[in-house]
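Methods — Computational structure assignment.
A single polypeptide chain was analysed. Its primary sequence is given first, followed by the predicted tertiary structure written as structure tokens.
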Amino acid sequence: MQSLQLLGLGMGSVFIILTLLIAIISIVSKIVPPEVSAPAAALPAQGIDPAHIAAISAAVHQYRKNR
């Protein structure tokens, strides 16, 4: 009987804590607006050689094609 009480107490406390956690996360997500980041293409390539960018792009394209 004592083991069933302990089981109920443990599972009940975990259920309550997880429910509170979900509620808190939902409330905070409604209060705090999401941060909008700039697209990667809009960022300037400062000091990066265009040949390096082309080589990296070609390597990524080749890797994705061979996958």
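Note: The chain is about 70% helix and 0% strand.
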